[in-house]
Amino acid sequence: MKKFALLFTLVLALVLSACAPKATPTPVATEPFRVAVVMPSAINDMAFSQSMYDALMRIQEEMGGPDNFEIVYSENMFVVDDAAAAIRDYATQGYDLVIAHGSQYGSSLQEIAPDFPETSFAWGTTAETFGQPNIFAYEAASQEGGYVNGVLAATLSKSATIGVVGPIEVGDAKLYVDGFKAGVASVNPEIVVNVNYIGSFSDVALASEAASTHLSAGADVLTGTAQMVVGAIGKAEEANALWFGTQSNQSSLAPKIVVASQVYHWEVALREMLSLIKSGTLGGKSFKANLANGGEVIEYNEGYALPAEAKTLADNTIKGIVDGTITITLP
Amino acid sequence: MISELFTTTVLIGILASGIRLATPYLYAAIGETFSQKSGVLNLGVEGQMLLGCFAAFYVALTTENLWLGLLAAMIVGALMGLAMAFVTVNLHAQQGISGIGFYLFGLGMSDLLFQKLLGTVETVKGFPEIYIPGLSDIPGIGEIFFRQNILVYGAFLLVPLAWFILNKTTLGLKIRAVGENPDAADSLGVSVARVRYFTIILGGTLSGLAGASLSIALLNVFQQNMTSGLGFIAVALVYFGAWKPGGVLAGALLFSIVNSLQLWIQVLGIPVPSDIAVMMPYVLTILVLVATVSRVRAPSALTKPFERED
Fold this sequence. Notes:
The structure holds 2 protein chains of 2 kinds. By secondary structure, chain A is an alpha/beta fold. Chain A has helices at 2-19, 48-62, 80-92, 106-112, 142-156, 171-187, 204-216, 230-238, 267-278, 308-323; strands at residues 33-38, 69-74, 97-101, 120-124, 135-140, 161-166, 192-197, 221-224, 242-247, 258-264, 286-289, 296-300. In chain A, the strands form 2 sheets. Chain A has a 6-stranded parallel sheet with strand order 2-1-3-4-5-11, sandwiched between helices. Chain A has a 6-stranded mixed sheet with strand order 7-6-8-9-10-12, sandwiched between helices. The longest helix of chain A is centred in the N-terminal third of the chain and has 18 residues, at 2-19. The relative contact order of chain A is 0.13. By secondary structure, chain B is mainly α. Chain B has one domain (2-295): Orthogonal Bundle (ABC transporter involved in vitamin B12 uptake, BtuC). Classes of the chains: A alpha/beta, B mainly alpha.
């Protein structure tokens, strides 16, 4: 009886854990281009993973649907070992391009890629291809959109205090926050920008309290990066403070207070990768999404009445960054 | 800059957010205290919380009735508890492993339901803050304690209630007896199975409430894996609190207040690297645990399935 019970629970645990990641295979007609992507959070996280999923969907539409461009994905791969297994699986199944969408997957990819010289891999966000002929790297110059958001935030803040909720002080998040601070300082160096890194990409409750802390400290404009900020946006809305988004368009979460979001359009990098792959180059190149190449776009929330002069200032800032008259100095 | 920590705004801010952060821990850890007192380690708290989060959010969103959401979270938590009770009490399953099974079930199931029923992150209007007449106007104290939402008040009222049930009622005596010496309790006519069913289901119900306190009172959103380890910290708090509701309260407050303190440390620009700051609540909790834990003893029958000897 005891043994049976133990077995039963073990089987239960196994079956249930196998349920978590999902993949949606699409039926094959004529030889489609096949892409697999492995992501650390959900495809609808309103942030990092969604930015890649949305981009792939747009490419699929351009290419004429799933018959020509097949997409499968594994989401919520926050355990790197699981992600590595998924990446290897997809490569074994002969996908044309396997995307490892998370900087934490790098060392796994470095091991896997040489075993599949015929498969093209893409890894982001990073500039590192490990010198492998079949790894593409992609990253976003998130400081650029951060800078534009910062300029707008400084213009709209009345209390001269701005709060930033960040996950961990590395990579994309750090770039965005540093760019944001530089943007604020370019308008008015007197404005205080308080930054809180909460040490987690998923702790929605702590992100929410981080936002409350900023509000108590007098902030009337907030921003934040990574998927746990959904908790912070709610606090901003309650206090009627303004919010600036990044990674995906976050307007729908709080239609009254989101001013603008920096949105990643990875399709710009993806398109180049696809044409390279078709001409036989499987990797060895790194791509950077920025405002100039359309890989980053500032999307305004139509529900928020942005004053015309602020809009003009933001547009001029974007122009300045694109033509190089504005250079962003990071610490 | 350090001196800025001791201004009234900051102190009030730290304590008020500490109280809010402690709320889900209290529900979950008090529930876990009941089940551990009766000898059952339930590691599935996190999964019960996640399903509670989702049930409360989804029902509140679709019916626009927060109380129905709350009820749904409690029912879902209770059902998870019922399943856990069946597996551990009737099938004598190893408690740690089955708990992890239930955690994974809750994680996967809440995610699946979210994908199928909602598909995107949405928000809901949650329980509002209730200003307690008179008390909420007391300077400082009022802002910290008496301007919170109803689930925060509930969590703090639960602590003395749990203490009373465990220590002053026959039911509490039975729970403790079953957790300390199930054979003796059984020979005196106490049904070990029935008591454990009760505590595990109660624990599940309270974990469901813990989830609801996040998704429809404090945060008012649902996102996959939004509990982010809270449920496991709640289990640790039961050990920290030496299986006493008061101890659990102390642990939950210590952990939460230090957590909100570190948020302020960063906001005030006190030069501590953020990586060190976010470690503070964990390090401090471990230090206190090391300093105090030697004197306490777990319920003797904890994790041991009960089999009647004929």
